[in-house]
Amino acid sequence: MNNNKFSYLIVFVSSLIMTGCGGQNNNSNSSDSSKSGNLFEQAMISGIKEFDDHHYEKAVAYFEKAKQIEPKNGDSYGWLASTFQKSKEYVKAELNYQEAIKLSPNNFEFRLNYARLLATCPDNQIRNGTKALELAKQLIDKNLDPNLEPNILATIAYSYAEVGQFDEAVQMMQKSIDHPNLPADLKTTGKERLELFKNKKVFRLD
User: Fold this and answer.
1) Most buried in the list 12, 39, 136, 138, measured by CB within 10 Å?
2) Model confidence over 143-182: pLDDT tens digits?
């Protein structure tokens, strides 16, 4: 998730500028809305910085603060989920991914990250290859961001491997590796995981 930090911040801040006072005729309400938006923005940006610096406990505190300010905004839940996943708190990660998807149904990155967690989680209670495959396949039809395509293909590969369909996993991982939008530094990682599937082995998060 942090690979898209700067593009996320641009969209995030722009959306606040566009919607912070939308439809408010009362000056007091407009001021309160603007103040809330600024506090939410500050908490999110601080949380993302701590996330990128691998200070996950501090990141959680900022994202929790953002959630309290705007409890119906899915962004804080999505970043909380990713942070809990990094700190191996997988139950909390799943709960926050579910809430993020409910609040932001059109955020495909949240869906993608949740599908990957379901396909590769070391915790048997969380892992669900069938559900992961269903979520990831849905993204192929709905996703409008070509930069996400190789990650979606890889997640489908992880899901196929988890349900024991290794031939399909090999095909999808190869498509991910060959995708023109896959960064060069990730091709090596993709090839390593491709070899796992060729040897009928699954991939697990560290």
Assistant:
1) 136
2) 667 788 999 999 999 999 999 999 999 999 999 999 999 9
